[in-house]
Amino acid sequence: MNTAYISIGSNIGDRLHHLKEAVRALHAHERAEVTEVSSIYETAPVGYTDQADFLNLVVCVKTLLDPYELLAACQHIENDLGRVREIRWGPRTVDLDILLYNNDNIEAENLLVPHPRMGERAFVLVPLLEITPTIEHPVTGIPFAKEVPDDTGVVLWKKVTGVEQLL
Ligand code: GSY
Fold first, then answer.
1. Domains contained in the chain, CATH given
2. Does any ligand 1 atom lie closer than 6 A to the CB of residue 39?
């Protein structure tokens, strides 16, 4: 069984509904199970800043999918939920990013794992560390908790204590 961490974000429409739909869809996959979820955070947009605040969370998935199959499943969910992405880095209905897949280091044209920008993104690290406080970067071995960027734009929006709250 493989362990993956996935960041999910939404900043269009009913953001909580979109996050829940994404978590449900992942959990409903016959070869994936969402075993842990972080709380939900409201986060200031990073990158293209002239857009609405996001809701973000991170989930842990136990899966028999290989990384590329997992990527395809994430993209399928994004498309099913009607992701709108007219501006690169711009607003989106829902976005799923694979952060980590076991301790693998994947450098393919369509997939980079660990996610190359995760260490710079408090909206990723704050929820990730909530569910796995001692996790280390698979390549450097440095605990992510040692280098959390400025997290002033990341505010707890809804405390979540179990997967069932989002299913
Ligand atoms: O990479 C995920 C999409 N995204 C986000 C996001 O999910 N949250 C915040 N706060 N900023 C973001 N910028 C991008 S691009």
1. 2-161 (3.30.70.560)
2. no
DSSP 8-state class, residue 114: S
Cβ-based neighbours of 50, under 8 Å, separated by 6 or more: none
pLDDT for 76-100, tens place per residue?
A: 999 888 765 556 666 668 999 999 9
Quickly list H helices, 29-160: 67-80, 122-131
Best of 54, 57, 84, 88 to mutate for ligand 1, by most ligand atoms within 8 A of CB?
Answer: 54
43 lines ligand 1 (CB under 6 A): yes
pTM listed for this prediction: 0.94
92 is catalytic: yes
Bond prior to 116 in cis (omega within 30° of 0): no
